[in-house]
Amino acid sequence: MIWKQRPIGVRLLSPIIVLASLACVLALDTYAADRNARIPRRTQIVVTPDSIDLHSVRDTRQLLVTGILTDGSEIDLTHLAEYSSNTSACDVTETGLVQVRGQGSGALMVRIGHRRMAIDVNVELAEVEQPVSFKHEIVPLLSLNGCSDIRCHGAPSGKGGFRLSLWGSDESFDYEQLVRDAFGRRTNAVDPDNSLVLQKPLARVSHIGGQRFSEESLTATLLRTWQEQGLVNDVDATSVKSLSVTPGERVLHAPATTQQLVVSAEFEDGTSVDVTQLVAFSSSDLALATVEAGGKVTFSQQGEVAILCRYMGKMVSARMMHIAEPSRDYEWTNPEPSNFVDEHVYAKLEQLHITPSVVCTDAEFVRRVYLDLCGVLPTPEEMTRFVGSDIPNKRAELIDALMQREEFSDLWTKKWMDVFRVSRDSIQLQGAQTFQAWLREQVSADRPFSEVVTEMLTATGESYSIGASNYYCAAPMERKVTDADYLQKDLAESTAQLFMGIRLQCAQCHNHPYERWTQDDYLGLAAFFSQITRSRLGKAGPDGRPERRQIAVALDTSITSLPGTEHKQVKPHFPGELPLTIEDGSDYRKVLSDWLVTSDNPFFAKSVANRIWFHLNGRGIVEPVDDFRDSNPSANDPLLSALAIHFAENDFRLRPLIRAIVLSKTYQASSLGNVFNSSDNKYFSHQTARPLPAEVLLDAICEVTGVPEQYEVMEDYTIGIPKEKIK
Questions:
Q1: Reported pTM
Q2: Sheet holding 262-267, edge to edge
Q3: CATH number for the segment(s) 240-323
Q4: How many Cα neighbours within 13 Å face the side chain of 444?
Q5: 277-306 pLDDT, tens digit each
């Protein structure tokens, strides 16, 4: 329901009227502390839902009251409104929660200052009340109160002899543990108040977790009622299809510091239910914002957070930002952007009232760009020539020249070798040299990175002769096989982390406890590598060590499932999607690479762009760079999207992406902060001093001192390799 005050006619825009209008807007400064505070006249008041139908004594609805200001910005008024009901069928708490009290219909009154609104409500109860649902209510409440947390009874070995599935992922297991395990003494259908499932969390008896909820809480009431009704087991009841949260995004301008969330669950039978009171909420950064049970978010300082909402194995997140009042002497300097990078960075900084640092000096720039692009110091002659030049676009010309130098290819090859986990212990010296030579050729030619990744993912052959095949050799070969799917799982984890920016390790044994990834997602990605086999070639290495040998990577397209017997039924599928139907005889890896490197893939371009940004700025837009997740929001979504689009539009080539970043004033900003950005370490308002890579630092020391470093390769790594092949 929307209410808007009728505009007041004004014949003359006098200074008095202007001041009155300003005072009307400034009245917002007091609303956070006073329910009777005046709200600006032209503010729209929106209450959702605009009508309510309830069908069970346990049904609830969370009202959401929003004020829409004349500039389009929104403020949450839910906890400032006053509520009343003209019917005995339901009542409303001071937080806007509607609760059933009986049969009937009527209206709920919402009051904001002098404004009043009516919400129609109808309660039509079934003749026979549905019993408390173990699956839909009890299991989520155990999760909400932390009982099935990994730090408590959701741990692999449980806690205090009592174990639950992590976050209620296995309702059948949880039912057995509560009702039948330990001789059934955890529950008590005859006298629920004496059951351990109530006695311990209410702290009536010793409980290492302390008191988890109160006597009058929803959790205690439902646990008591469920036992009184005979411990009904409905684990086969309909499951949740999806969750939605309102609002999904919100910017709170000071003095606003709070936001009410409403979460709805859509079930597979088509019904939709307000489950806000059953959802487990968590904040991605407790130092910035906390969230209460029931969904009220409160900020303590300026910043951005993601609020994760978990219910019955499904998760959804809401992005929240709080912008504090700027200091009295703050003034946006309106810097001129050099390109799209600056446009997005400056837009975010202006929104947060952070002034960017000035552009660095020529001397600072030339040293920075030489080290970042080529890993070498400029010579005194190069420094003097650049600083003394008065060519208008000399920085762009220097960037282009540096990207054509041999040192550029050397440095960026080394960066990717580190990312790809190259180690002499895993792929041997000759394998590492072969991989390095192949990868340097790709970097030097600026080959589309999509093609580089495709060649690695679909490679086969011997590791000493086929450079790309070493991607499959980075995972150590087990001396004793304890997991038949070890290789496939390692490849799934590394591929997801390197090229998608997501960490799937936590989904190996169970659904990810804090993200939307499931164990099926993990195994489905591993299944793309089910046709791959590895073997050692030749005789044993030094001292009979079998690992000191070449590796052969082979493909068997007749294989259609993971090697281990436990997961034979798993079919390849992309994370978050349904299993695929793949034609017999196909290379599963080719299907994966074709999906991964498309321009509309939600992961690839953003992941690579973020990694390049990290190498040039010392911090990723998403940090850590390989940890994209709902509960780890990026520092600048539009910037990351723009970089990904630019990367894709340039055929996934790295040089245009690097050039765009280095040409920006954001990259060229001074590392010296100002009074408005000195505390910023997230939004790229100034460059951050960062340590040089070890190899670059050593080369710089050798260059400055004139004393080259002597390197030796351990004989253990060179036995059997012709001397002319040792580099």
A1: 0.87
A2: 240-246, 262-267, 272-274
A3: 2.60.40.10
A4: 10
A5: 999 999 999 999 999 999 999 999 999 999
